[in-house]
Amino acid sequence: MKNLLLIIFLISAISAQGQNSIIKRLDGSTISSDSLTNAIESLISKADVKGLAITVFNAKKPVYMKTFGYSNVEAKKKLELQTNLYGASLSKAVFAVLVMKLVEEGVISLDKPLQDYLLKPIYEYDFKVWHEDFKELKSYPEYKKITARMCLDHTSGLPNWRWFESDEKLKIKFEPGTRYSYSGEGLTYLQVVLEKITGKTLEEMAQEKIFRPLGMTASSYKWQEKFEKDFAYGYDNDGKIQEKDKDNAPRGAGTLETTIEDYSKFITAVLNKKILSAKSYKEMFSPQIRIRSKNQFGPGALEDGNWNDKTELSYGLGWGLVKTPYGYGAFKEGQGSGFQHYGIVFQDKGIAMVIMSNSYPTGKIIKYLLETGIKDTFTPWEWDQYIPYDKNF
Predict the structure, then answer these.
(1) Is residue 32 a contact partner of residue 23, using CB atoms and an 8 Å limit?
(2) How far apart are CA 289 and CA 204, in angstroms?
(3) Is residue 86 part of a domain?
(4) How far apart (Å, rounded) are the C-alpha atoms in residues 263 and 255?
(5) How far apart are CA 97 and CA 99, in angstroms?
(6) CA 324, CA 328: separation in Å to the nearest integer?
(7) I need a surface site. Which of 84, 197, 294, 363 has the fewest CB within 10 A?
(8) Which CATH number does the domain housing residue 111 bear?
(9) Domain range for residue 143?
(10) What's the rounded Cα separation, in Å, for the pair 111 and 357?
């Protein structure tokens, strides 16, 4: 089955590159691949995007996969399908599937407090890298209530990252399980507990459960020497090149290195309910917590209202969710070091779209890319602060 899935993927990708195929969108309308390419090229020019990779999925497989622009503007090096891209928080979508696989295998339960799996308090363990240092949780006994479910749906109470706090210290900011607040620290806590339970590193588990089974040979949670031959630099909003970080300790919340080809294999597996059972996918893509904040980050994250009631914006397990006439759309963003990514999966329709870019200004065209490619008008672009280049708010 693994080989068959890979063959189908490769045939589809090659076909998509070689002819002016027809892409079916959510509302039943269609667009030709040539028309989509022309629209993308126009948007890239208007927003001054340096490099962009796009995959569109129909009938649970890729029907359009194409790259635009440069991986290295200064060297005029083209961004290719095989170019390594820093995955940023797309890492979390892959990590969520890994966790659900371990849940299926009985390694961990979604609702048992994570501390209960350990022989001593998490803050008493020695650590080798900063993200394993939990000594500050000694002052927050409520951390003992945190479960895998809370980490995956971002209700752990932990901050996004400790270095964003005014004192740069780890803390519990609210009662675990009571409110949505995006937290890379929460997922990292879950990762560290899993590593202690299994005796395996994140990278070992990901390779064993996800990357190797799906043929994702160019993906890793740590920098690999083989990526040196073709990788993309990130560019900020001013078009300034960002230093490539190659020494990150593996974190399920944000150190994925991948390619548009490899990440599309992952989305193909999600659409076809591979790796996990149908039951697990249903759990992962079921609302766990309603989100009522105005924005994902910044002051708007603390301002509640009815801005997203129409789509019942919520979070599942590792993925955001919007309710649409076509079933739930499960989405995941990624941003960091100049990279700007977005992916959304409409599993009931077998339609999805992945946007991967090494340029922050891509956020200014995400709304239009999604509407043009698959008629996705449900993505919470204002909540995500993907403000289009031609709008002022």
Answers:
(1) yes
(2) 31
(3) yes
(4) 14
(5) 5
(6) 6
(7) 197
(8) 3.40.710.10
(9) 2-374
(10) 36
Those residues with Cβ within 8 angstroms of residue 300's Cβ, 6 or more apart along the chain or in another chain: 293, 294, 385
pLDDT in tens, 200-241: 999 999 999 999 999 999 999 999 999 999 999 999 999 999
215 found inside a domain: yes
Q: Which two tokens stand for residue 93?
A: 């979508």
Distance from C-alpha of 373 to C-alpha of 56, rounded to nearest angstrom: 7
Whether residue 185 contacts residue 163, with contact meaning beta carbons closer than 8 Å, is answered with no
What are 351-384's pLDDT values in tens digits? 999 999 999 999 999 999 999 999 999 999 999 9
Ordered strands of the 320-324 beta sheet: 77-78, 61-72, 51-58, 351-357, 339-346, 327-336, 320-324, 314-315, 289-290
Which residue in 308, 263, 315 sits closest to 285, CA to CA?
A: 315
Number of domains in the chain: 1
211 touches 87 (CB < 8 A):
no
Q: Is the pLDDT of residue 256 over 80?
A: yes
Q: Where are the beta strands (DSSP E) in the chain?
A: 22-24, 30-32, 51-58, 61-72, 77-78, 85-88, 256-258, 289-290, 314-315, 320-324, 327-336, 339-346, 351-357
**What's the pLDDT tens digit per position in 269-294?**
999 999 999 999 999 999 999 999 99
Whether 346 is in a domain gets the answer yes
Q: How far apart are CA 342 and CA 374, in angstroms?
A: 14
| Mean pLDDT to the nearest integer, 147-167 | 97
Asked if residue 390 is part of any domain, the answer here is: no
Q: What are phi and psi of 194, to 5 degrees?
A: -60, -40
* Per-residue pLDDT, 20: 85
- Structure confidence at residue 393 (pLDDT): 55
Which are the contacts of 107, defined by CB distance < 8 A and separation ≥ 6? 194, 197, 198
Check residue 124 and give left, alpha or beta (phi > 0: left; psi -120 to 50: alpha).
alpha
Task: Give 309's DSSP letter.
Answer: T
Q: How far is 146 from 177, CA to CA, in rounded Å?
A: 8
Kindly tell me the burial class for residue 102, based on how many C-beta atoms sit within 10 Å of its own C-beta (0-12, 13-18, 19 or more): middle
Tokens 């691949």 -> residue: 33
Q: Please state, in angstroms and rounded to a whole number, the distance separating the CA atoms of residues 209 and 276.
A: 10
Q: Quote the CA–CA distance of 156 and 176 in Å, as a whole number.
A: 5
Report whether pLDDT(312) > 80: yes
16 — pLDDT class (breaks 50, 70, 90): very low
